[in-house]
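Deliverable D5.2: sample structural annotation.
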Amino acid sequence: MENSRIVYLVTGYLNDALTELETNELQELLLTDDGGEAVAAACRELVLQSPPAADYQPLQWESLLNRVLENARNDNEEAAVIPMKPAKKYRWAWAAAASLTLLAGAGIYFFMTNKKENDTLAGNEPVEVQPGRQGALLTLADGSQVLLDTIQNGVVALQGGATAKVIDGALFYDGKGDEIVYNTMSTPIGRQFQLTLPDGTRVWLNAASSIRYPTVFKGTERKVEVTGESYFEVARNTKMPFLVSVGNATEVEVLGTDFNISGYSNEASLNTTLIDGSVRVKQGNESVIIKPGEQAQVNGKIRVEKEVDLEKVTAWKNGLFNFKGSKLEDVMRQLERWYGIEVVYENGIPDITLGGEMSKDIPLKGLMIVLQKLKVQYRLEGKKLTILPSREL
């Protein structure tokens, strides 16, 4: 099969735009040794040549793909994770499938280059930008990585006596390990995932976020490190405080409580919002204790906001967008992280305050039609969303 056809099938798959016959063609291709290798190679080519969406880091994703391909070439390498290493017969099929999943979560968008085949794609109509979904990348202590998107219920890894398994779309640790080793779970753009730590603490990760944690808690404290946005339901243990480190200087200390942390690098402040219990937020030599319904905002110094809208703060965890009282630019950053799009402004940022709540499961076009009724004018080209100057409707 010609390389242009393979690239077309891969691109159509990533854009969720293949016909049933084309999908069957790609599946049959994956079941052959030569076909699987060709698909995996096409994935790597797309990483190197395609324009990125927001926060896309080509070196990071190329490294992941190279690791997948290297595993496929090494017949003697022992598998570090479950599902076990694929049989040699299907090794390239596994590598290709893993590569496709990596690209689907990378926030990359692709353009069709073959006009004849492009005309076949949805009648030459623009490809629908689909919403994000459940998925994450787990990095184990030895550096090996597991795509949690692809795993059904079952054991993922055994490390230092501790077991990690996926149950009903969430990752669980049994807390029975003897050796302290660290894992990192990260969600790329357009993905969310849930985790239960070895002490029973439940964590939800929003898109473009990460958490680093030990596979077993020992000693006098339980400490994790996070980036992006996460929601915690901390298991109570008065003898072992729970500490969350965000960046180099901010730390949240709790005993047993529910709270949300939002610390994206492109947001104005790092916000810790308390839903239940009590937490202490530390920044350098400064610290404050906040009560339920309050939010500690860190931007050099700590500022406490009273009577925060908790439904708005936690909407993402419940599968919702809540735009109540949000400025347009704040909403657009959310959409970049969830849909893997790039947002640009044609003539400055319109001064628009939005409202309303809607499901995160709808395609981008449907959401933008709703926002258009709120005076948001836009132009959507592939995964580039241009916000136009506002006008009275």
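Annotation notes: The radius of gyration is 22 Å. Confidence is low (pLDDT under 50) at residues 50-62, 71-92, 105-125.
The annotation will be released with the project's public dataset once the embargo ends.
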